[in-house]
Design brief:
The protein is an alpha+beta fold and 329 residues long. 28% of the residues lie in helices and 19% in strands. The chain has six helices and twelve strands. It has helices at residues 102-120, 157-173, 177-188, 229-249, 296-300, 310-327; strands at residues 2-7, 12-17, 47-50, 77-79, 83-88, 127-134, 146-152, 192-195, 199-202, 213-217, 256-261, 278-282. Strands 3-5-7-6-11-12-10-9-8 form a nine-stranded antiparallel sheet, with helices on both faces.
């Protein structure tokens, strides 16, 4: 059974996918993402294949029986339509994103762009979410370097809130909210980690996570589909710099959630004037061995608490980036 169930209090959809509980445990010495597994080509650099146990699918999975008599339903359901894809970053089981050379990283960014455009062509898809979960602290059971892409038939609540705020700011201030944030961070300077011609990375003023980082396009670009060749190159560079800095922060494999925020697609009204491409790097650690939990305040009422200073943590990340760059010269 797979379906979307509407939460009338938060006005948001919840994906209820019982078949994902049937995912098998892989043998100890077997990785389906490694060449020779029979699941992927024997020779690849980056690769896309459909998730074997998708939360969303086309055609959608069978829904459950109605929970209330026909015509008297209180709760609302919808088919779990969409797409779930796995993106393999490297054939190396122990590979790291920041170790990819320019050509390899370019192929990965090209694949992300291609899949965004292809999934956006489906008018039933309203949001294309490109992401990576890294580390057991965020629930990863498969360490082979990979990410995922979800094509949702609805607008996720966080993106809906961002879009609403951006529209309001544009109406009141006459400019892009995200461009204004970039300008504020650049002017202050102390939370900036690094930048290049097309992107700037910083620990935002309001960071909910100790070492959370935003990577934001400098130009008013709405989504990865609009990246030209140079923009793609610079995106790959800054993404490798930030992930490299993370692993050199405490000289250990640092867990994170890489969340790529592209503009929504196929909405009834255009959003190009107000939305702006950015990546949110969400990090569950506040020190080398202490995890920052999303506990009752954060999860129960969405009242976040950062147990550290964004300015001090940005300084630590700049130092870690320097060590990473020095070791890779």
């Amino acid at each position: 059974m797979a379906e979307l169930r509407w939460n009338p209090m938060t006005k948001d959809w919840v994906m209820v996918i019982s078949n994902r509980a049937k995912r098998p445990n892989m043998p100890k010495d077997y990785c389906p993402f490694c060449p020779g597994s029979g699941k992927v080509p024997d020779d690849y650099k980056v690769y896309k294949y459909d998730n074997d146990f998708p939360a969303l699918s086309n055609p959608p999975a069978e829904m459950s029986a109605p929970v209330t008599p026909a015509g008297k339903a209180f709760y609302k359901t919808a088919p779990a339509y969409g797409k779930c894809e796995v993106i393999l970053f490297s054939p190396d089981h122990h590979g790291k994103l920041y170790d990819l050379d320019d050509d390899h990283m370019g192929q990965l960014v090209d694949l992300w762009q291609q899949r965004f455009c292809d999934l956006s062509a489906d008018e039933k898809i309203k949001y294309v979410f490109i992401f990576e979960n890294r580390g057991k602290e965020v629930g990863v059971t498969q360490p082979h370097p990979h990410g995922q892409i979800y094509g949702y038939p609805f607008l996720p609540k966080k993106i809906e809130l961002e879009l609403s705020s951006a529209k309001e700011f544009l109406a009141e201030q006459g400019r892009c909210l995200f461009c204004a944030m970039n300008e504020e961070e650049k002017n202050f300077g102390e939370r900036i980690i690094c930048e290049n011609e097309d992107f700037v990375a910083y620990v935002p003023f309001f960071s909910e996570y100790a070492y959370g980082v935003y990577i934001s396009a400098k130009k008013h670009i709405q989504h990865i589909g609009q990246f030209d060749k140079k923009t793609k190159e610079n995106f790959g560079i800054i993404l490798r710099q930030i992930t490299g800095a993370y692993d050199h922060l405490f000289d250990t494999v640092f867990p994170y959630m890489m969340c790529m925020h592209n503009a929504p697609v196929n909405l009834s009204e255009p959003v190009a004037d107000c939305y702006h491409f950015h990546v949110e790097m969400l990090t569950p650690m506040r020190s080398a061995d202490v995890q920052q939990y999303r506990a009752s305040s954060e999860s129960g009422v969405w009242a976040s608490c950062n147990p550290s200073s964004p300015e001090a943590n940005a300084a630590q990340l700049r130092e870690a980036l320097d060590r990473f760059l020095q070791r890779n010269r």
